[in-house]
Design goal:
The chain is built from twelve helices and two strands. The protein is an all-alpha fold. α8 packs antiparallel against α12.
Length: 316
Amino acid sequence: MRVSGTGGAGQAERVLTALEAWAQRFPAMGGARLKSMARSCAAACEGASDDSVLQLAVFCMILFGIDDLGDRALAPLPDEEIDQQLGQLEAIVAAGGTSSFEPPVGAPGQVFRALSGFCRDLSTRQPAYRLFARHLVGMLRGMREELAMSRAFSTRGELPGWDAYVELGTRTVGIPPVGAVMLALRGPAEALDSARAERAVEQLLLAAGRCIRFANDLRSYAREVFEGKPNSVSLQLRALACTEVEARAVVAAARDAEDRALPALVAALPLELLPWGQSFHRHTSFIRDWYAIAELHDEVPHFKEGSSVLTTEGAS
């Protein structure tokens, strides 16, 4: 699917129209998130073509589909079936969107088909696609580890160590592959041929991932306690034997430290990658602010009219 145009006040609406048409083919990944994704991606990618913004929004919707797959469809399954389905998704990414197996039925099949089409389109953009594939495969493998970690916590009360939890959560929160998609779409991808550039990009992707992992955990703590899932707030509660307010303050400080580091990491990028870094920073800030007022799972904050500032007014 393609949409023509570049920037301007009407870009978000043009992208939304195209995104809604995409979601008609994949209704399991549609719904109330479409509008916020169109608006947030347009705000992050200022000056980009409508098509680039659309492709980023499509990938964000696919990420929601993968996350829902892990939370709902896979969690009750035996380990071998989880390994099979996540392994098939990994194979799709590694092969650039091609696969030799039939996708599952229902909503999981929609995720498989949408991911296949997206990867086929993006795989022509090397070497950024290799960066994207590495981070998305890392996310999918991390989902297996996360499901096992959640079972250990809910059945035996076992919590991972802080460093292991943060490393895993940085992979599974989805922000590094989003940044890699933005780089593939906006480029210049050839800048990654430099080891220095790749290292600078990696540092930015991971710091943004940690920032959003902590923001996610602060918002989702109560729900995840109910669901029997570990969370960085849970880890601090046990490690410090403190109150929930004190544990939240520790996690918020960790989020803010990563957030403060982002401008310097953007500035450290090679000059040709600065526009990408600035766009990725804006997108990360949007997601951080979204988590400050709502969960991405089931609540959609609204924009103030004529701006990219989030508000809870009118949110349902």
